[in-house]
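Archive maintenance. Older records in this collection stored only the sequence; we are now back-filling the structure field for every entry so that each record is complete. The fields below show one back-filled record exactly as it appears after the update. Entries are processed alphabetically, and ABC transporter ATP-binding protein is next in the queue.

ARCHIVE ENTRY
Title: ABC transporter ATP-binding protein
Organism field: Nocardia acididurans
Length field: 352
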Amino acid sequence: MGVEVRTEGITKSFGSQRIWQDVTLTLPSGEVSALLGPSGTGKSVFLKSLIGLLRPEKGSIYIDGTDITTCSNKELYEIRKLFGVLFQDGALFGSMNLFDNVAFPLREHTKKSESEIKKIVMEKLELTGLLGAEGKLPGEISGGMRKRAGLARALVLDPQIILVDEPDSGLDPVRTSYLSQLLIDINAQIDATILIVTHNINLARTVPDNIGMLFRRNLVMFGPREVLLTSDEPVVKQFLNGRMIGPIGMSEEKDEAQMAREQAMVDAGHHHGGAEEVEGIIPQMKAQPGMPVRQAVLRRRERVRQILHTLPPAAQEAIRRSLEENGDSDTQVIPAYQGAFDSTVRHNLTNG
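Back-filled structure field:
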């Protein structure tokens, strides 16, 4: 099973530029989470911090209980073996065919024989739908295939945590949907903790168990998907509906005068830009038939029951409906769960 990832009050800057500050969240073991935010809000920087490529100036990052901000390079090397990372562009070696690209981590970090390596690589290529393409170079295949090859390589060391940076980057909506389904299916099969960094609205609405959002150098909120999908927080509502009206502007923030002008246009009947507001919660994507039962769903069901009374009313109602639709009418509220959601996050959710 995947391991828990937890940050406590982490802050990251580059020189005098503050990227984000005081970020506290918990990625529950084995669940799929998504981190949203407009371009330039430091989502990829957050991923690199989780794996120890960047070090925050303040705060702690706990990977399976170990604070990687204080451990030695040798300890960090071992902890990184828990991770598989899918970078935006796949990050494949252009001079290597797909087989050698996927085999690279095994040859670098293990002492497995070539026959063992071949068996593992072919399994991962089959899992990602790339059997028959192992001899091709990255330049000879489509962007979607390169993404899947990058995912196959991220899986070869059997990671307990998978970080996915902008999986939709460079892909059309259909292939983004296929890749989203693949991530859900992989979670069903290996029960890894998955964090997807994205600004794709459809992916955010349909894939994760939990959603967080970065804006104005802060984590606006993080919690069960129903919390953000029913939120009245202006920046969350604007982002998830792809609208012009709201705090997010072309240069990230708007001043009050610009927001007033745009609202006046809407009040006068002018189009607000973006999609029409989506009512209700779109059902979450499920693992395909024939896949194992996704254990994250079962664990999450119990977890959200335990924190239900700490959540906003709209989120509570959405969770109750979801439980009923899945044949689980027992929505009794029991004392708050103290492990996965600390007091800071519950405060953010309640006041968001």
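Update note: Residues 233-279 form one domain. The CA atoms of residues 305 and 332 lie 7 Å apart.
Entry marked complete.
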